[in-house]
Amino acid sequence: QVRLVESGGGLAQAGGSLRLSCQSSGSLFRTNPVGWYRQAPGKQREFVASVTATNNTNYADSVKGRFTISRGNTKYTANLQMNNLKPGDTAVYYCYIQWSPVVWGQGTLVTVSS
Fold first, then answer.
1. Region 84-104: what's the mean pLDDT?
2. In angstroms, rounded to a whole number, what is the distance separating the alpha carbons of residues 15 and 10?
């Protein structure tokens, strides 16, 4: 069974930075698109960023120019560098693997204070 483990969430001030990491135990992570969604309190889960096996990236308009997604050297990890954070970025961030069904991590909380 494929597992995803996120780390790196926490508290940051507006304008600050955080780096999320996602580590997997299965080969699906290496061959399929992976990325992050986020869910703020009282809101639906929304797409943040993704990266394919060939390192093509895609971003939500709300994070373009501030967030950068990348795959780690081991190909079983992915990172989300979040810069110039805003209070609106506060949410639980979920790592995922694009598969049927989608594989989700347990989520990590990011809180941005103004």
1. 96
2. 14
